[in-house]
Amino acid sequence: MRGYINIPESIQCRVCKHCGSRPIIALTGKDEYVVKCPVDSNHYQTQPGMIDIEDWNLENIPLPEPEFDDANMVACYDSKLNYTFFLPAFSA
Ligand SMILES: [Zn+2]
């Protein structure tokens, strides 16, 4: 029977970026482990081998939220179509 290990709370690891689950460590071979999403095998899992929570964390950086929803933000485009945002209410 294949073993699953819950990652202790004391270990810093990101949740699955697809479904928000905390990953588990699964034994896939004699001495090979993967860090994977417990919900869906199609979500990210690390390469079999050493327990590589760092790799999991790199792959599960949360998708960026849409930015600048704040109605107070104003976008400015310059002649090269670079844009900057600023708060019009800001005063030094
Ligand atoms: Zn997942």
Description:
This protein is mainly beta and 92 residues long. It is 8% helix and 21% strand. The protein has one helix and five strands, in the order βββαββ. A hairpin with a 5-residue loop joins β2 and β3. The protein is elongated and about 60 Å long. 12% of the residues are buried. The mean pLDDT is 83. Bound molecules: zinc ion (ZN). The site of zinc ion has 8 residues, from loops.
Short description:
With 92 residues, this protein is mainly beta. It has one helix at 53-59; strands at 4-6, 24-27, 33-36, 74-77, 83-86. Strands 1-2-3 form a three-stranded antiparallel sheet, with no helix packed on it. It has a two-stranded antiparallel sheet with strand order 4-5.
Distance between the termini: 65 Å
Count of helices?
1
Helix and strand sequence: EEEHEE
Report the structural category.
mainly beta
Radius of gyration of CA atoms, rounded to a whole number: 21 Å
**Which cofactor or ligand species appear?**
zinc ion
Q: Strand tally, please?
A: 5
Strand order of the largest sheet: 1-2-3
The percent of residues in helical segments reads under 10%
User: Unreliable stretches, pLDDT < 50, 5 or more residues?
Assistant: none
Summed over residues and divided by their number, the pLDDT gives a mean of: 83
What share of residues are in beta strands?
Answer: 15-25%
Any idea what the shape is? elongated
User: Quaternary arrangement of the chains shown?
Assistant: single chain
Instruction: Tell me the major beta sheet.
Output: 3 strands, antiparallel
